[in-house]
Protein backbone atom coordinates (compact mmCIF):
# COMPACT_ATOMS: atom_id res chain seq x y z
CA UNK A 1 0.00 0.00 0.00
CA UNK A 2 1.87 3.08 -1.25
CA UNK A 3 1.39 6.82 -0.94
CA UNK A 4 -0.31 7.44 -4.26
CA UNK A 5 0.91 10.89 -5.22
CA UNK A 6 -0.78 10.53 -8.61
CA UNK A 7 -4.22 10.51 -6.98
CA UNK A 8 -6.39 13.46 -7.99
CA UNK A 9 -5.93 16.40 -5.65
CA UNK A 10 -8.96 17.92 -3.95
CA UNK A 11 -9.42 21.66 -3.67
CA UNK A 12 -7.94 23.50 -0.70
CA UNK A 13 -11.26 23.71 1.16
CA UNK A 14 -12.12 20.08 0.43
CA UNK A 15 -8.64 18.94 1.50
CA UNK A 16 -9.07 20.74 4.82
CA UNK A 17 -12.49 19.14 5.24
CA UNK A 18 -11.01 15.69 4.62
CA UNK A 19 -8.27 16.34 7.19
CA UNK A 20 -10.96 17.29 9.73
CA UNK A 21 -12.99 14.16 8.94
CA UNK A 22 -9.97 11.89 9.32
CA UNK A 23 -8.99 13.71 12.53
CA UNK A 24 -12.51 13.15 13.88
CA UNK A 25 -11.78 9.43 13.68
CA UNK A 26 -8.48 9.80 15.56
CA UNK A 27 -10.33 12.01 18.09
CA UNK A 28 -12.82 9.20 18.77
CA UNK A 29 -10.01 6.65 19.04
CA UNK A 30 -7.88 8.89 21.27
CA UNK A 31 -10.82 9.63 23.56
CA UNK A 32 -11.58 5.93 23.94
CA UNK A 33 -7.94 5.03 24.61
CA UNK A 34 -7.12 7.69 27.21
CA UNK A 35 -10.56 7.94 28.86
CA UNK A 36 -10.64 4.19 29.53
CA UNK A 37 -8.09 4.68 32.33
CA UNK A 38 -10.45 7.01 34.21
CA UNK A 39 -13.38 4.58 33.81
CA UNK A 40 -11.64 1.73 35.64
CA UNK A 41 -13.13 2.51 39.11
CA UNK A 42 -16.64 2.84 37.61
CA UNK A 43 -16.34 -0.45 35.71
CA UNK A 44 -15.02 -2.10 38.86
CA UNK A 45 -18.05 -1.07 40.93
CA UNK A 46 -20.55 -1.84 38.17
CA UNK A 47 -19.33 -5.37 37.42
CA UNK A 48 -18.38 -6.26 41.00
CA UNK A 49 -14.68 -6.82 40.28
CA UNK A 50 -11.47 -5.34 41.69
CA UNK A 51 -9.87 -2.29 40.10
CA UNK A 52 -6.79 -4.30 39.01
CA UNK A 53 -9.17 -6.70 37.25
CA UNK A 54 -10.98 -3.81 35.59
CA UNK A 55 -7.58 -2.53 34.47
CA UNK A 56 -7.17 -5.65 32.34
CA UNK A 57 -9.75 -4.16 29.97
CA UNK A 58 -7.09 -1.59 29.03
CA UNK A 59 -4.56 -4.39 28.48
CA UNK A 60 -7.09 -6.21 26.27
CA UNK A 61 -7.58 -3.07 24.16
CA UNK A 62 -3.81 -2.57 23.79
CA UNK A 63 -3.44 -6.21 22.76
CA UNK A 64 -6.09 -5.68 20.10
CA UNK A 65 -4.20 -2.65 18.78
CA UNK A 66 -0.86 -4.48 18.64
CA UNK A 67 -2.33 -7.50 16.84
CA UNK A 68 -4.86 -5.72 14.64
CA UNK A 69 -2.56 -3.00 13.28
CA UNK A 70 -0.23 -5.25 11.25
CA UNK A 71 -2.89 -7.83 10.36
CA UNK A 72 -5.41 -5.34 8.95
CA UNK A 73 -2.66 -3.43 7.15
CA UNK A 74 -1.34 -6.57 5.47
CA UNK A 75 -4.63 -8.24 4.56
CA UNK A 76 -6.27 -4.94 3.61
CA UNK A 77 -3.55 -4.09 1.08
CA UNK A 78 -5.76 -4.96 -1.93
CA UNK A 79 -8.75 -2.91 -0.80
CA UNK A 80 -9.27 0.78 -1.51
CA UNK A 81 -8.31 3.07 1.37
CA UNK A 82 -11.81 4.53 1.56
CA UNK A 83 -13.28 1.05 1.97
CA UNK A 84 -10.73 0.26 4.66
CA UNK A 85 -11.49 3.46 6.58
CA UNK A 86 -15.24 2.79 6.46
CA UNK A 87 -14.76 -0.82 7.55
CA UNK A 88 -12.48 0.11 10.44
CA UNK A 89 -14.82 2.81 11.73
CA UNK A 90 -17.70 0.34 11.52
CA UNK A 91 -15.73 -2.20 13.55
CA UNK A 92 -14.72 0.49 16.04
CA UNK A 93 -18.34 1.61 16.48
CA UNK A 94 -19.49 -2.00 16.92
CA UNK A 95 -16.76 -2.75 19.47
CA UNK A 96 -17.67 0.26 21.61
CA UNK A 97 -21.40 -0.44 21.35
CA UNK A 98 -20.84 -4.03 22.45
CA UNK A 99 -18.64 -2.80 25.31
CA UNK A 100 -21.53 -0.66 26.51
CA UNK A 101 -23.78 -3.73 26.52
CA UNK A 102 -21.32 -6.08 28.25
CA UNK A 103 -22.87 -7.82 31.26
CA UNK A 104 -19.75 -9.61 32.53
CA UNK A 105 -16.06 -8.95 32.98
CA UNK A 106 -15.04 -11.58 30.42
CA UNK A 107 -17.46 -10.26 27.81
CA UNK A 108 -16.04 -6.77 28.30
CA UNK A 109 -12.49 -8.11 27.85
CA UNK A 110 -13.46 -9.67 24.51
CA UNK A 111 -15.26 -6.54 23.32
CA UNK A 112 -12.37 -4.23 24.29
CA UNK A 113 -9.98 -6.51 22.38
CA UNK A 114 -12.24 -6.31 19.31
CA UNK A 115 -12.45 -2.53 19.65
CA UNK A 116 -8.66 -2.23 19.63
CA UNK A 117 -8.22 -4.19 16.39
CA UNK A 118 -8.87 -1.31 13.92
CA UNK A 119 -7.12 1.36 16.04
CA UNK A 120 -3.60 1.19 14.58
CA UNK A 121 -4.63 0.41 11.02
CA UNK A 122 -6.97 3.41 10.96
CA UNK A 123 -4.11 5.74 11.88
CA UNK A 124 -1.93 4.19 9.20
CA UNK A 125 -4.49 4.34 6.38
CA UNK A 126 -5.75 7.81 7.38
CA UNK A 127 -2.16 9.07 7.31
CA UNK A 128 -1.66 7.61 3.84
CA UNK A 129 -4.86 9.24 2.56
CA UNK A 130 -3.84 12.61 4.03
CA UNK A 131 -0.33 12.32 2.55
CA UNK A 132 -1.75 11.54 -0.90
CA UNK A 133 -3.69 14.83 -0.94
CA UNK A 134 -0.63 17.10 -0.68
CA UNK A 135 2.75 17.44 -2.40
CA UNK A 136 5.52 15.18 -1.07
CA UNK A 137 7.16 18.19 0.61
CA UNK A 138 4.14 18.57 2.92
CA UNK A 139 3.53 14.96 3.89
CA UNK A 140 4.58 15.37 7.52
CA UNK A 141 2.22 18.31 8.01
CA UNK A 142 -0.62 16.27 6.51
CA UNK A 143 0.10 13.38 8.88
CA UNK A 144 0.28 15.78 11.84
CA UNK A 145 -3.20 17.13 11.04
CA UNK A 146 -4.64 13.63 11.20
CA UNK A 147 -2.86 12.87 14.48
CA UNK A 148 -4.15 16.21 15.78
CA UNK A 149 -7.45 14.50 16.57
CA UNK A 150 -5.64 12.30 19.09
CA UNK A 151 -3.95 15.25 20.78
CA UNK A 152 -7.19 17.27 20.97
CA UNK A 153 -8.80 14.21 22.56
CA UNK A 154 -6.41 14.60 25.50
CA UNK A 155 -7.62 18.19 25.97
CA UNK A 156 -11.36 17.94 25.36
CA UNK A 157 -12.42 14.37 24.63
CA UNK A 158 -11.10 12.71 27.79
CA UNK A 159 -12.63 15.23 30.25
CA UNK A 160 -15.98 15.03 28.42
CA UNK A 161 -15.89 11.24 28.42
CA UNK A 162 -15.03 11.20 32.10
CA UNK A 163 -17.94 13.54 32.90
CA UNK A 164 -20.34 11.32 30.96
CA UNK A 165 -19.10 8.35 32.96
CA UNK A 166 -19.48 10.19 36.28
CA UNK A 167 -22.93 11.65 35.70
CA UNK A 168 -24.62 9.16 33.34
CA UNK A 169 -22.58 5.96 33.61
CA UNK A 170 -19.50 4.41 32.00
CA UNK A 171 -21.62 2.54 29.46
CA UNK A 172 -22.79 5.83 27.96
CA UNK A 173 -19.18 6.87 27.46
CA UNK A 174 -18.72 3.92 25.10
CA UNK A 175 -22.08 4.70 23.43
CA UNK A 176 -20.89 8.27 22.79
CA UNK A 177 -17.64 7.05 21.26
CA UNK A 178 -19.55 4.58 19.07
CA UNK A 179 -21.73 7.48 17.87
CA UNK A 180 -18.60 9.50 17.00
CA UNK A 181 -17.24 6.55 15.04
CA UNK A 182 -20.52 6.23 13.09
CA UNK A 183 -20.49 9.96 12.35
CA UNK A 184 -16.93 9.65 11.03
CA UNK A 185 -17.99 6.65 8.92
CA UNK A 186 -20.81 8.63 7.30
CA UNK A 187 -18.60 11.63 6.56
CA UNK A 188 -15.93 9.39 5.03
CA UNK A 189 -18.58 7.65 2.94
CA UNK A 190 -19.88 10.87 1.39
CA UNK A 191 -16.92 13.28 1.39
CA UNK A 192 -13.61 11.40 1.18
CA UNK A 193 -12.70 10.71 -2.47
CA UNK A 194 -12.29 7.15 -3.70
CA UNK A 195 -8.72 5.99 -4.23
CA UNK A 196 -8.39 2.68 -6.08
CA UNK A 197 -6.06 0.13 -4.51
CA UNK A 198 -2.52 0.15 -5.79
CA UNK A 199 -2.20 -2.62 -8.43
CA UNK A 200 1.19 -3.58 -6.97
CA UNK A 201 -0.19 -3.92 -3.43
CA UNK A 202 0.06 -7.49 -2.17
CA UNK A 203 0.51 -9.20 1.16
CA UNK A 204 4.10 -10.02 0.18
CA UNK A 205 4.79 -6.39 -0.80
CA UNK A 206 3.51 -5.14 2.57
CA UNK A 207 5.60 -7.69 4.44
CA UNK A 208 8.70 -6.36 2.71
CA UNK A 209 8.64 -3.55 5.29
CA UNK A 210 9.84 -6.09 7.86
CA UNK A 211 13.04 -6.58 5.85
CA UNK A 212 14.07 -2.91 6.05
CA UNK A 213 16.50 -2.12 8.88
CA UNK A 214 15.42 1.51 9.04
CA UNK A 215 11.82 0.45 9.69
CA UNK A 216 12.87 -1.52 12.77
CA UNK A 217 15.19 1.24 13.98
CA UNK A 218 12.47 3.86 13.56
CA UNK A 219 9.96 1.70 15.43
CA UNK A 220 12.56 1.23 18.17
CA UNK A 221 12.87 5.00 18.49
CA UNK A 222 9.10 5.19 18.95
CA UNK A 223 8.87 2.36 21.49
CA UNK A 224 11.73 3.54 23.72
CA UNK A 225 11.53 7.29 23.14
CA UNK A 226 7.77 7.46 23.73
CA UNK A 227 7.92 5.18 26.79
CA UNK A 228 9.14 8.06 28.97
CA UNK A 229 6.10 10.19 28.15
CA UNK A 230 3.69 7.47 29.28
CA UNK A 231 5.84 6.80 32.34
CA UNK A 232 5.23 10.31 33.67
CA UNK A 233 1.66 10.70 32.36
CA UNK A 234 0.45 7.54 34.11
CA UNK A 235 1.58 8.65 37.57
CA UNK A 236 1.01 12.40 37.22
CA UNK A 237 -2.19 12.49 39.29
CA UNK A 238 -0.56 10.58 42.15
CA UNK A 239 2.53 12.82 42.04
CA UNK A 240 0.38 15.95 42.18
CA UNK A 241 -1.26 14.51 45.29
CA UNK A 242 1.78 13.15 47.14
CA UNK A 243 4.52 15.54 46.02
CA UNK A 244 3.00 18.81 44.80
CA UNK A 245 0.16 18.55 47.37
CA UNK A 246 -2.49 19.87 45.01
CA UNK A 247 -6.21 19.09 45.30
CA UNK A 248 -7.81 16.49 43.04
CA UNK A 249 -9.55 19.28 41.14
CA UNK A 250 -6.15 20.44 39.82
CA UNK A 251 -5.56 17.18 37.92
CA UNK A 252 -7.85 17.81 34.89
CA UNK A 253 -6.31 21.26 34.16
CA UNK A 254 -2.80 19.77 34.35
CA UNK A 255 -3.80 16.97 31.98
CA UNK A 256 -5.16 19.67 29.66
CA UNK A 257 -1.75 21.40 29.81
CA UNK A 258 -0.19 18.11 28.71
CA UNK A 259 -2.69 17.89 25.85
CA UNK A 260 -2.06 21.48 24.75
CA UNK A 261 1.67 20.79 24.73
CA UNK A 262 1.13 17.64 22.68
CA UNK A 263 -1.03 19.52 20.19
CA UNK A 264 1.56 22.29 19.80
CA UNK A 265 4.37 19.75 19.50
CA UNK A 266 2.50 17.73 16.88
CA UNK A 267 1.90 20.79 14.67
CA UNK A 268 5.45 22.13 15.07
CA UNK A 269 7.11 18.76 14.49
CA UNK A 270 4.96 18.21 11.40
CA UNK A 271 6.17 21.50 9.90
CA UNK A 272 9.81 20.99 10.91
CA UNK A 273 9.91 17.38 9.69
CA UNK A 274 8.95 18.50 6.18
CA UNK A 275 12.09 20.64 6.14
CA UNK A 276 14.61 18.59 8.19
CA UNK A 277 13.17 15.27 9.31
CA UNK A 278 16.08 13.63 11.13
CA UNK A 279 17.27 16.79 12.97
CA UNK A 280 13.64 17.25 14.07
CA UNK A 281 13.52 13.70 15.41
CA UNK A 282 16.77 14.12 17.32
CA UNK A 283 15.71 17.53 18.64
CA UNK A 284 12.36 16.34 19.99
CA UNK A 285 14.03 13.37 21.72
CA UNK A 286 16.49 15.70 23.44
CA UNK A 287 13.68 18.11 24.38
CA UNK A 288 11.90 15.22 26.05
CA UNK A 289 15.10 14.20 27.84
CA UNK A 290 15.62 17.72 29.24
CA UNK A 291 12.01 17.90 30.42
CA UNK A 292 12.27 14.48 32.08
CA UNK A 293 15.47 15.51 33.87
CA UNK A 294 13.76 18.64 35.17
CA UNK A 295 10.60 16.82 36.29
CA UNK A 296 11.80 15.56 39.73
CA UNK A 297 12.73 19.12 40.71
CA UNK A 298 9.73 20.83 39.09
CA UNK A 299 7.20 18.49 40.73
CA UNK A 300 7.53 20.33 44.05
CA UNK A 301 5.76 23.51 42.86
CA UNK A 302 2.80 24.07 40.56
CA UNK A 303 4.29 26.68 38.16
CA UNK A 304 7.52 24.78 37.32
CA UNK A 305 5.49 21.56 37.08
CA UNK A 306 3.10 23.19 34.59
CA UNK A 307 5.98 24.30 32.37
CA UNK A 308 7.64 20.88 32.42
CA UNK A 309 4.39 19.01 31.77
CA UNK A 310 3.81 21.26 28.74
CA UNK A 311 7.29 20.37 27.42
CA UNK A 312 6.77 16.65 28.05
CA UNK A 313 3.48 16.87 26.16
CA UNK A 314 5.21 18.77 23.33
CA UNK A 315 7.77 15.98 23.00
CA UNK A 316 4.79 13.80 22.01
CA UNK A 317 5.25 15.36 18.56
CA UNK A 318 7.70 12.48 18.12
CA UNK A 319 4.77 10.36 16.93
CA UNK A 320 4.30 12.53 13.84
CA UNK A 321 8.00 12.40 12.95
CA UNK A 322 8.17 8.63 13.43
CA UNK A 323 5.09 8.15 11.23
CA UNK A 324 6.54 10.36 8.49
CA UNK A 325 9.91 8.63 8.70
CA UNK A 326 8.23 5.24 8.28
CA UNK A 327 6.46 6.48 5.14
CA UNK A 328 9.82 7.51 3.68
CA UNK A 329 11.81 4.33 4.46
CA UNK A 330 9.17 1.67 3.72
CA UNK A 331 8.66 2.34 0.01
CA UNK A 332 6.00 0.02 -1.37
CA UNK A 333 4.82 -1.17 2.05
CA UNK A 334 3.93 2.08 3.80
CA UNK A 335 0.58 0.72 5.00
CA UNK A 336 2.12 -1.91 7.27
CA UNK A 337 4.91 0.39 8.44
CA UNK A 338 2.48 3.18 9.35
CA UNK A 339 0.20 0.76 11.20
CA UNK A 340 3.15 -0.66 13.12
CA UNK A 341 3.75 2.84 14.49
CA UNK A 342 0.60 2.41 16.57
CA UNK A 343 1.80 -0.99 17.77
CA UNK A 344 5.01 0.73 18.85
CA UNK A 345 2.99 3.49 20.50
CA UNK A 346 1.00 0.97 22.56
CA UNK A 347 4.13 -1.01 23.42
CA UNK A 348 5.55 2.23 24.82
CA UNK A 349 2.29 2.62 26.73
CA UNK A 350 3.05 -0.70 28.45
CA UNK A 351 6.82 -0.32 28.97
CA UNK A 352 6.82 3.21 30.40
CA UNK A 353 4.27 2.73 33.21
CA UNK A 354 5.72 -0.71 34.04
CA UNK A 355 9.25 0.65 34.52
CA UNK A 356 7.94 3.68 36.40
CA UNK A 357 5.92 1.40 38.67
CA UNK A 358 9.02 -0.70 39.40
CA UNK A 359 10.94 2.43 40.43
CA UNK A 360 8.15 3.55 42.76
CA UNK A 361 7.71 0.04 44.19
CA UNK A 362 11.43 -0.08 45.06
CA UNK A 363 11.06 3.06 47.19
CA UNK A 364 12.86 5.39 44.79
CA UNK A 365 10.11 7.97 45.24
CA UNK A 366 7.21 9.18 43.13
CA UNK A 367 9.39 11.58 41.14
CA UNK A 368 11.73 8.75 40.13
CA UNK A 369 9.49 8.34 37.08
CA UNK A 370 11.27 11.42 35.73
CA UNK A 371 14.63 9.63 35.85
CA UNK A 372 13.09 6.55 34.24
CA UNK A 373 11.66 8.82 31.54
CA UNK A 374 15.09 10.42 31.05
CA UNK A 375 16.68 6.99 30.57
CA UNK A 376 14.02 6.04 28.01
CA UNK A 377 14.36 9.34 26.12
CA UNK A 378 18.14 8.95 25.96
CA UNK A 379 17.66 5.31 24.92
CA UNK A 380 15.48 6.50 22.05
CA UNK A 381 18.16 9.05 21.13
CA UNK A 382 20.83 6.33 21.06
CA UNK A 383 18.70 4.30 18.62
CA UNK A 384 18.29 7.51 16.60
CA UNK A 385 22.09 7.85 16.38
CA UNK A 386 22.32 4.20 15.36
CA UNK A 387 19.75 4.86 12.64
CA UNK A 388 21.84 7.76 11.31
CA UNK A 389 24.99 5.62 11.34
CA UNK A 390 23.28 2.70 9.57
CA UNK A 391 21.86 5.00 6.90
CA UNK A 392 25.26 6.61 6.29
CA UNK A 393 26.95 3.19 6.08
CA UNK A 394 24.31 1.94 3.61
CA UNK A 395 24.83 4.99 1.37
CA UNK A 396 28.58 4.44 1.37
CA UNK A 397 28.11 0.75 0.53
CA UNK A 398 25.80 1.62 -2.37
CA UNK A 399 28.22 4.23 -3.69
CA UNK A 400 31.10 1.75 -3.57
CA UNK A 401 28.98 -0.84 -5.34
CA UNK A 402 28.11 1.64 -8.07
UniProtKB/TrEMBL annotation:
Keywords of this entry: Cell membrane, Membrane, Transmembrane, Transmembrane helix
Residue ranges occupied by any Major facilitator superfamily (MFS) profile domain in the UniProt entry: 18-392
Residue stretches spanning the membrane: 12-36, 56-77, 89-111, 117-134, 146-168, 174-194, 215-235, 255-273, 285-312, 368-389
Keyword Membrane carried by entry: yes
Membrane topology: Multi-pass membrane protein
Name listed for the protein in its UniProt record: MFS transporter
Localization (cell): Cell membrane
Record carries keyword RNA-binding: no
PROSITE patterns: MFS
Top-rank taxon, per record: Bacteria
Chief place where the protein resides: membrane
Amino acid sequence: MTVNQSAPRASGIMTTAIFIILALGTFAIGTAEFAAMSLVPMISRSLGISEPQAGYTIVAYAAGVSIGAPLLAVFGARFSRKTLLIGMMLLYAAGNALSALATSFYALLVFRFITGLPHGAYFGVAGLVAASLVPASKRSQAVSRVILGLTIATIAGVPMANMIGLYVGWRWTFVSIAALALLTLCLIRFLVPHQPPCPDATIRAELNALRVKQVWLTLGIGVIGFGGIFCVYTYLASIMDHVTHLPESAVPPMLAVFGIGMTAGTLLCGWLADHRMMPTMGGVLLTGAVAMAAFPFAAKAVIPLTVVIFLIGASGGLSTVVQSRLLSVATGSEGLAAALNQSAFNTANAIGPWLGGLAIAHDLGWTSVGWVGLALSLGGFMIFLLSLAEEAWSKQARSRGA
